[in-house]
Design goal:
Elements lengths: L5 E5 L4 H12 L3 E6 L12 E4 L5 H15 L4 E4 L14 H29 L2 E6 L12 H21 L4 E8 L21 H14 L7 H13 L6 E4 L3 H10 L2 H11 L12
Parallel strand pairs: 1-2, 1-4, 2-3, 4-5, 5-6, 6-7
Helix pairs in contact: 1-6, 2-3, 3-4
């Protein structure tokens, strides 16, 4: 990669996206960070802020057009904008499910489609999709979030094949628990009368602990992501953050019966004994 890249980061107002945008800017790259914001929300940041709503095709197109008008190229797209979900699948309103997928899947696809003409013309580029360990491991009470990240796994793998002949590299970054405010902003409604209230209460106790002191700081994750992107690596899946690599390795080698039991036990999910007929 060249000494100075034009980098477009989505979801750059907070969390991993903000940390990644700051890290690339610190290393001397030209960074555009998009987020659902007013332009003044990016004041005094060392990168160019863009008002960006990944669920709006016109907003995505306008952001990419501005970058091309000013730089005439886009070297790196970091697809980070995302929305979390917490709650029983049965009780989650379909409108919210659609919102999760509009951001995490369709929003990412809009950004990919918008930058591809420029990258094909260049004959180069890197698309780094920020997935999640939850894209390989279904998490209780985060089913729709996991489903959107599972979908991202398939999209990214297919995209990798399709872009090889154009010299465009696709990377799938799989973070574990990162200490951002995404969990604080996640809706966690469950009525006391819900049949899931007790098990979800136990889950929330564990999850809040995982997302606080046990989680990796976003600045540390951002350094790893920048190192991966700026390297010449062709390794497709790259786990980052504490325990992500180990968990994904265990998911790969352990039988379902063992791994699913361990996840349920970790989150305090009561497991009944199922009788099997011979």
């Amino acid at each position: 990669m060249s000494s100075s890249e034009v980098v477009f980061v989505t979801g750059a107002l907070r969390g991993i996206g903000r940390a990644v945008a700051l890290e690339f800017a610190r290393r001397g790259h030209k960074v555009y960070g998009g987020g659902r914001s007013r332009p003044e929300d990016f004041d005094e940041l060392p990168f160019t802020g863009l008002a960006l709503d990944v669920t709006d095709e016109e907003s995505v197109g306008a952001a990419v057009k501005r970058i091309m008008d000013e730089c005439d190229r886009i070297d790196v797209l970091v697809n980070n904008a995302g929305l979390s979900h917490c709650g029983p699948l049965e009780e989650t309103p379909f409108d919210y499910v659609r919102e999760v997928f509009e951001t995490n899947y369709f929003g990412l696809l809009r950004c990919v489609n918008a930058v591809l003409p420029a990258m094909r013309n260049q004959g180069s580029g890197t698309i780094a999709n920020i997935g999640s360990a939850a894209g390989k491991i279904g998490i209780p009470f985060q089913g729709h979030y996991s489903a959107s990240k599972f979908a991202l796994e398939g999209l990214s793998e297919s995209l990798r094949y399709e872009l090889l002949e154009f010299g465009i590299r696709v990377l799938l970054i799989e973070p574990g628990d990162v200490a951002t405010d995404i969990w604080e902003r996640t809706k966690t409604p469950v009525a006391e009368s819900s049949p899931y209230s007790r098990s979800m209460g136990r889950f929330l106790t564990v999850k809040e602990k995982e997302m606080s002191g046990q989680a990796t700081p976003p600045e540390e994750v951002a350094k790893d992501i920048a190192n991966i992107i700026l390297s010449k690596t062709t390794v497709f899946r790259r786990p980052v953050a504490k325990m992500a690599g180990m968990l994904l390795f265990l998911r790969k080698i352990l039988p379902d019966s063992v791994f699913l039991w361990a996840v349920a036990r970790n989150y305090g999910i009561k497991q009944l004994s199922f009788l099997q007929k011979e």
